[in-house]
User: Fold these one by one.
Assistant:
Number 1:
Amino acid sequence: MSSHNPISIRALEIGYGAQGYSYMHRIDCHAQHGELIALVGRNGVGKSTLLRCIAGLQSPLGGQVLLHGSDVQTTDRARRAQLLSFIPADPARSTNTTVREFVTLSRYPRHGWFAPLDSDDQHEIDTAIHRVGLSHLAQRHLDHLSDGERQRAMIAFALAQDTPIVLMDEPTAFLDLPNKFEVVRLLRDMALSGKTIVFSTHDIPTAFSMADTIWLMLPDGLSVGAPEDLILSNTINRLMDGSHVAFDTASGHFIYAHEGIRRPIALNAPEGVLRTWTVHALERNGFTISTTPTPETPIITAIEPNQLTLQTNGKSLHFGSIHDLMLTLRQS
Amino acid sequence: MRHTAIFMAASVLVLVALLTLDLVLGSVRIPMRDVLQSLLGYTDNTLAQSIVSNYRLPKAITAILAGAALSVSGLLMQTIFRNPLAGPYVLGISSGASLGVALVVLGSSALGLGFWVGQLGVVLAAMMGAMLVLLLILAVSMRIRDIMTILILGMMFGSAASAITSILQFFSDESSLKSYVLWTMGSVSGVSGDRLTLFAIIIAVGTVLALLLARPLNVLNLGENYAKTLGYNVISIRFLAFLSTSLLAGAAAAFCGPIGFIGLAVPHIVKISLRTSNHTALLPATLITGGNMLLLCDLLAQLPGSDLVFPINSMAALMGIPVVIYVIFKNKRIAA
């Protein structure tokens, strides 16, 4: 068993078979023990379908998914539930269910329909709730949790199910930035304990800063690599094909390509944070920094964030913030 | 869990109290001592003996069984459809039973077959009608995920059943028409002896089936995806729940007529009291509260101190509707 990868995907073809329409051909990849994998791709490219195929909830059009060497499609349901935990994208919603009651359900696969849960189960449940930091809310009802707390409860569910493989569909959707990072940190902790984690996400900054591996899903296939590999090979930009957005490999920022002609402007500022963010503001507003200014080119002099000067048409205007400066520039 | 234990203990006490009142109160005044003696089988008051053991006790047991059956089936439907307004009545199961009975009671006379089918025929027809609606809903629910569509389908089926029933009524003779209309008003009296035994057996089977489903229902309550990932076969759980529901709701409709709102309201009374979604607690609590509820309806329907008896269906609706309205106002997700 241990010689096999937790997840091996072989020549997998996925899509909606009923329509005779396959939108992704031949995915070949694998996941190792303790690997945290972010599945990234555009809307509708088939991230959820891939996860559901790995989880055995949907049959692929071709190829196979092996979990520890055995085909997921032929693995017995009950066995599968002890091998793999799948947390769907739809938030766990149920009135009158406490966090603890919810997490308790994840222990059912070990006990069939009737056998009572034992003290081991109770311990696992409490530990899982503790690890996601929800001990103080264990008796709170699910529908009284914030989105971030609910997502953590769903992670506790996967923790308590205690499977070597965990799949999560968009665990960071609807969350604010600190919660996004917190959720991915919890996933990384699970990976560090030896579990194999695959989660789909649209949140590229979080994924690229925390995941070991990126599965980049494109209409013509899956690109696999460390986040840095995908940036250096510029594969990441294929995610933005046909859009106005581009990933700037130098700065690590996403840039929205401005439509129309950029106006030249001269900037007089020393290298540093102030210059960086003044350039950011100018580019955002459709200007380009001119290195060869003509007499007509407006000139900005930045000394301090609250000491900004604009020289244009022989006039000199002073501003106390980038915001004020931009308001005037946009009108000119 | 302590909360649940207290609720269960209180419910049992209420059951004993209601049962006692139901046996003591009635158009014929029978003292408490005679009632007890009749139950134990030694009394010289043969009239009391006869009234209690041949009429009041079977009626009370029927009310308890029917109330429990309707409530448990309502709970099953609310969980399976993940909709607080689901229930045998809303989904047209009672309408299906009514159509079955109408076909037998009215159809046989309209077709000149006479009333050859008898009481067992009515029961079978109602059961089959209920089963038919459930299978239709099951088939639709496997194709259409949207729960509102399924509810609307249930309502449409109810309307279609009423339309067919109206046609049958139009062509049927006066006596069958009256027996059909009386059936629709609901009654817990008149079920005794072998028929009561049969009724009890069907309810017992349906209830045991429901109790076996407690754990899968807890999981299904979170949604289909969770149930699947935890290794449950959603289709077979649904099938068993539908089977249990058609036994319970079908039998209740067959023996007591289409009693509405109990199946919808009682699970909510229990959920509001227990504040849990754990079916190992909800199912037994619903079972006993359902029995209490219909027993109470029966008590009120016979209007203590008078000879008047109202249809139990009206009592059930008057007691159930306020609960349903409360749930609608409380649960904003229904409106959304």
Note: Chain B has one domain: 58-335.
Number 2:
Amino acid sequence: MTRALAALGLLLVLAATPAFAVSNPSEMLANPVLEKRAEAIGMQLRCLVCQNESIEQSDATLAAQLRGIVRRRVLAGWSDRRIIDWMVARYGNFVRLKPPFDPMTYVLWGAPAIALAVGGAAVALARRRHPVGPDPLSPAEQRRLADLLK
Amino acid sequence: MDATTRRRLLMAAPLGIAAVGSGLFWTLLARMQQGTYDPHALKSMLIGKPLPTFSLPGQPPSAGFANTDVTAGKLPALVNFFASWCVPCIEESPTLMALQAKGVPIWGIAYKDSVAATTRFLNTRGNPYLRVARDADGRTAINFGLYGVPETYVVDRTGIVRLRYAGGLSEDSVRNTLAPLLAKLA
């Protein structure tokens, strides 16, 4: 019981919040609602320097600068969409951690469906090749089997 | 096709796939070594578009410049972001000097650097630039979509960006990438 509780506690701690690099309180907006929005936007934007972290998680100076830009634009009343578009206009769709559904990413987003179709086709093909087992034994064969097993 | 041939084919399939895969992988590594493929390189949003609007102060004694100055020459030109604190910038400086000697106009932008450090850098490494401007806070760089220094942008005679080269230029990258493009644009 205690062990289960400890495990649950650990899980909660690990799952609680992603590690934010915004450790410097002077970077954060005073208004918690706006700060939360800025964080949510920042979490969707890739740090171009480390490439696998969001700008909220990265310690790179460029990421810090982009965080500042997001926050100033949030304060200025820009919509999330407009801020992200501003970034995309400069850095391309690569800056978005969640790529949009467009011709470049059809294969990416369609991958699960494609995998399912290929797997389904393979199963169907295998089924067709070995349709059903042999015919059931005739009464004569069953008698013979019974004799043999005696 | 009888059962044995089919079985043999099935057995050979993984080997075949592995062979094709390693062939592709080998090409990839070879191209990375040649410098013709960089997995971290990003496609610039500026390609096919005019330079972003900017007007930057000069690094004394150079006058500053604006995007319109770069295109006023009606010649293909390079815009090179550099910094004294960046090692690849030091490495690429002989290559830039060689390009300048060949008559390629190069516009320098000192990225997030002090006047004194930039002066020292230009004095020791040479100054291949037509003019040097200062982007002290890096805001112009963000409008370029810059994600590190050095970065070099090739602008054609009509002022359209044709190439972004991220990272230090070398003899190889000039021979394989830059020189053919400049020849085409000339």
Note: Helices of chain B lie at 3-34, 67-72, 87-101, 115-125, 139-144, 171-185.
